User: What shape does this take?
Amino acid sequence: MKKKYHLLSACLLVIPYQGYAQKKTKQSNKPNILFICVDDLRRELGVYGSVVKTPNIDRLATEGSLFFQHYVQVPTSGASRASMLTGHLPKDRSDLSNEACRTGLSNKPEGDIPETMFHHLRRNGYYTVGIGKISHYVDGCLYGYEEAKTDIPELPYSWDEMLFDAGKWGNGWNAFFGYADGTNRQSRQKQVKPYECADVTDEGYPDGLTANLAVKKLHELASKDEPFCLAVGFFKPHLPFTSPKKYWDMYEESSIPISPMPDIPEGCSKVSLHESPEFKSYQSGEEMPSTDKRVSDEYARKLRHAYFACVSYMDAQVGKVLEALDKSGKADNTIIILWGDHGWHLGDLRVWGKHTLHEISLSSALVVKAPGHKKGIQNNRIVSSIDIYPTLMELCDITPPQGLDGHSFVQLLDNSNDPEWEDISFSFYRNCISLRTPDYRFTRYYQKQDTITELYKYSQDLCERKNIVHERKDVVNKLLPLWDKAVKITY
Assistant: This one.
């Protein structure tokens, strides 16, 4: 049963523990884990009804559970990943930053409380390997976009091995913002387009190298006499929207649909939106978006074409890893989770990017395949990223640490109609808190002395078309006590 969210204090209690000895035991009966993180992946997969071609992830979804209402806790990568990895709602302003893991977990002595779910798995007999972007820093080491690479780990206790192949780009951040010729956004002083189509192999961009590394590591792990957890982080479809030409060629640009809601909803405050600053750091683009005027339909199609191509490119890399798992003979005893760290506005509400508390930014892809559970479940229950940690522990028969804010949704893998599951999700950003229920999103924005409230109702159309807060006082009065249970952020 999903318990009620309890009121949380403003600071995280960390109890230092001296002299902890890492213990590993052979537990061949434990399921293995393949955890795939995808950056900026909204619910833009074929299996969700999109025109995007994603045959490998679609196939995975038919073998497990596909979640149609999965929500992240923070609509920015580092903070979303920190929340998912720790199973905690944000409790402090620093938890809303891309530096959340660095601030809360890096350079700390190992304590009784595991730093992440991967640390907890490692303490319980798993050999843990991370490849690519799992937390915020793309190769697991702490250094800035334009700084020399260091060997200081972002998550010092989570991994037996942390790997990355930077190829011609030289280091992780250069690869993350890389173009096919080996340059990157930093080296070109942002004088780059937000997209690129190059006639190269899959290895011409970093995710191809990541897939190859994961395939190689899977072969090694399959030969070990201990359960493994392999986490693989793919960059695409994060900006820049760069992918090999063959994936662009899968789409006819003129037929690509633009956003069903390309303008600002009626009654929506611009406080809830932004001027697409991340997108504008690619300064050679043909047009720049604005909340005052949306980009042309022609340019919107080009950008969506680029994003769709990136998703198909990423899907192909996921397919290589899944094929390697099948060939290893370990697939039948392996839990597979594919998770998008948040959504992304593709011109929706005139925004290009994440960083809003609107539906399109907070919703993302989630697929879970677990041995012994039903196949082909299309799940419409509301789940949160913080629920992944306790779910994975239950699937592995490991007692989770006390105090997690998430709740295991293992029962939903077999019975999506479980009446005891509570369908709510809280999300946070800047001075704002949002509550999602099956029918509504209720959000409050604090601006100096003002409080701005928005209420949107959903049916099959998940677009926010009109803020109905003034029309539905009854709904506001009903949701406000539930919203008040959210974490109290210290500003």
Summary: The CA atoms of residues 431 and 481 lie 19 Å apart. Residues 3-26 have pLDDT under 50 and may be disordered. The two ends are 33 Å apart (CA to CA).
